[in-house]
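Write out this protein's structure.
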Amino acid sequence: MRKALGLLVAMVALCPAVAQQSLGEIAAQNKAAAEAKKAASSAPSSGEVMKLFGLLQIEKTMSAVIAATKEQSMEFAGQMLHERMPDATDAQKKQFQAMIDEEMRQALGPEAIREMLEATVPVYQRHLTKGDLDAMIAFYSSPVGQKILQEQPAMVQESMEASAGIQQRIARTMFQKIDQRVQQMMEEEKKAAKP
């Protein structure tokens, strides 16, 4: 019995069909792993990038930026109206306001946002691999990723408030130095102009 079992083991070990099958399975596994690696290193699809945009709530962020831009544009438009029509009546001002609202709605509506997002997709496809995108989607789909997305607007706002004084100080110092250098340049020019 032992001899028969030993012979069976030896036959299996030496059988080319069994060895080829094992090598074939190994080759298939290696090929599948290489294809998965290649797919992960290839560019993500447009749909995958748009899925990331959805998770990142980019459309919502763009809408907020557009709303802020609209507000600034309205102030600029009001100044323009005042310069061109200093004696505008309330009716003319309302008409102008309605015209600006309509133009802004058409220029910066949902279709414009969608068009901007679609124009951005190739940028992400050039800079990120499918593997990168898959990892980002996994992270932003996780509870921690969702918390970051939820808290990020408040964190950005608070960070801006926390650093506002520092930014003002830096700008003030920078402009003082520029003013001093301009003054020095003007004095040097006066000295050079004297015979």
